[in-house]
Amino acid sequence: MEPGWVWLCGAGPGDPGLLTLHALNALRQADVVVYDALVSPEILDWAMNAELVYAGKRGGKPSAKQQDISLKLVELAKAGKRVLRLKGGDPFVFGRGGEEAQTLLAHGVNFRIVPGISAGIGGLAYAGIPVTHRDVNQSVTFVTGHDHTGQAPGSLNWRALAEGAQVLVIYMGMKHARHIANELMAAGRPGDTPAAVVCNATTPDQQVLETTLAHLADDIEASDLQPPAILCIGHNVKMREALDWQALAEGAAPRSLDPLGVKAQGA
């Protein structure tokens, strides 16, 4: 890292082992780390010589304004600091990294983008749910569960998603799960479509709820699960019956060897 530069880095979905080597390198060199709410303390422990600046945003809680965060990055860089902006997941996947990069560019600040493992992929993998599976889907659609106002996104074409998205991965969707499910079913998505909720993905506190689209909202309320969470809607969820690798590592037997009715190659 060079003085006056900002590195926009993804910290991954939670497990410190999923941090990239570039992000670890930045943590060891940075003068200042501006970090999000979902960055674990274990990751921040690697920033032994840096000032730590909290800039987390959580729904329904007092949060820093995005413009203030972006301008803080400019201020620190202009002061000659080596600045690490550490964001949960990937900075360019519903992480507003693009907005921060635009602000840096407008103020003449050099920056570098370091991708991270997004929760919509890594979090599902830790739950034993492959985001793609050849026998299920040839596409996957990533959707945000709320817009800039905090409400359910009004610009989405629910019919197109219901009919064309083989697998839906929804970020920040727990609050509006009922609205999302109702919109999809009203647009033709079958209510018995498998669905899963993965909370605190990749951390020791990870919880996974398996349900269906029709029962998604009621089961979330009954379970008392809390965000952060990823919602997944699609038949790939059934693969968890065989691929829940964390349960297998603890000695549990797979619930099914062939959840999709398609034998593994060579079996």
CATH architecture of the largest domain: 2-Layer Sandwich
Just give the CATH class of the largest domain.
Answer: Alpha Beta
**Ends: how far apart?**
50 Å
Which outline best applies? globular
Listing every helix as H and every strand as E from the N terminus to the C terminus, the arrangement reads EHEHEHEHEHEHEHEEHEHH
Low-confidence segments, given as residue ranges, are none
CATH topology of the largest domain: Methyltransferase, Cobalt-precorrin-4 Transmethylase, Domain 2
Q: Would you tell me the overall average pLDDT? A: 94
Strand content: 15-25%
Annotation, overall tally of beta strands = 10
CATH H-level name of the largest domain... which superfamily? Answer: Tetrapyrrole methylase, C-terminal domain
The largest beta-sheet arranges its strands as 3-2-4-1-5
So what's the oligomer here? single chain
Question: Structural class from helices and strands?
Answer: alpha/beta
Query: Over all CA atoms, what is the radius of gyration?
Result: 20 Å
Q: Please, how many domains?
A: 2
Helix amount:
25-40%
* Count of alpha and pi helical runs: 10
**Biggest β-sheet: count, sense, barrel?**
5 strands, parallel
